Amino acid sequence: MQRQHLIEILNDLLHPELFKDYAPNGLQVEGKGEISRIVTAVSATQNVLDQALALKADALLVHHGWFWRGENPAVVATKYRRLKTLMSGDINLIAYHLPLDAHITLGNNAQMAQLLAATDVAQGGENSFIWSGLVPPITVQALASHLEKSLNRSPLVLGDQTKTVSRLAWCSGAAEDFFEEAIAMGADAYISGEATERTTHLAREMHVPFLVCGHHATERLGIKALSDWLGENHGLECIFVDDENPI
Q1: What confidence tens digit (pLDDT) does each residue in 145-172 have?
Q2: How many CA atoms does the CB half-sphere of 90 hold within 13 Å?
Q3: Number of other CB atoms surrounding residue 229 within 10 Å
Q4: Is residue 157 in some structural domain?
Q5: Residues 121, 158 contacting (CB under 8 angstroms)
Q6: What total of structural domains would you count in the chain?
Q7: Strand order in 156-158's β-sheet?
Q8: pTM
Q9: 126: buried, middle or exposed (CB in 10 Å: 19+, 13-18, 0-12)?
């Protein structure tokens, strides 16, 4: 498949033009024009790049790419080594950040809804990034156990683990700042990837448990779903590489 055709397919699917993002979405670094083998990953790290090079990938498709707003633009140290590896294999770097969080079927939050088997699923909050839904009544401790098995990461539970909950709210990645908004939406418990010091006090004082499931773990979902979709619908060889991250 020609590179431009792949980008058009991804843009038509994910609609990056709808988002004011923190980094460019779509093609970030140009490589070879013909693409048949794609390595996918959460982040474009050196370990992932080394594996993409070893696998003779034509493109690397990630959720967390490069060129973030406010970062030092100088191509030195880690940035130089990563770019050198990418260009040595003439590998395209393609990234979709917020569009992959938000997609209604393949996105991180949509995939979390499936993982939870939630019903009455709705979106709310800023840019509709907070998702919510109903599950059969379950203790927070049992919910944490289910998430651990599904995400391969033990959640940090802030608040009362014995509480029984039914209406859940969630947002993948670093979405701790949506916690209060999720509470206002009626959530019995909130699931996200990261938390801050103040989050603990809020969970205790508002009596709404917060399950911290890992930024990386909650955002494996979307890129894996996108990888599968490309293989099934467009015949591309997609290989997911998991560069494990405890955060």
Answers
A1: 999 999 999 999 999 999 999 999 999 9
A2: 6
A3: 17
A4: yes
A5: no
A6: 2
A7: 119-124, 130-139, 164-171, 189-192, 210-212, 156-158
A8: 0.96
A9: exposed
pLDDT computed for residue 163 by the predictor: 97
Residues 91 and 107 in one domain: no
Q: Which two tokens stand for residue 202?
A: 């809020």
> What radius of gyration do the chain's Cα atoms show?
19
Give the CA-trace dihedral at 177, 66, 68, 103, to 10 degrees.
-40
146 and 154 in contact (C-beta within 8 Å)? no
Give the mean pLDDT of 110-122. Answer: 98
DSSP states along 5-50:
HHHHHHHHHH-GGG---SS--EEEE---SB--EEEEEEE--HHHHH
CATH number of the domain that 62 lies in? Answer: 3.40.1390.30
How confident is the model over 59-74, as a mean pLDDT? 97
Same domain flag for 54 and 110: no
Residue 127 has pLDDT above 80, yes or no: no
Scanning the structure block, which residue is given the tokens 């098995």? 149
Strand stretches in the chain, DSSP E: 26-29, 37-43, 59-64, 92-95, 119-124, 130-139, 156-158, 164-171, 189-192, 210-212, 237-240
- The structure tokens listed for 173 are 């990645």
The sign of the CA dihedral 53, 193, 152, 167 is: negative
**Interval 190-224: pLDDT, tens:** 999 999 999 999 999 999 999 999 999 999 999 99
Token reading at 240: 């997911």
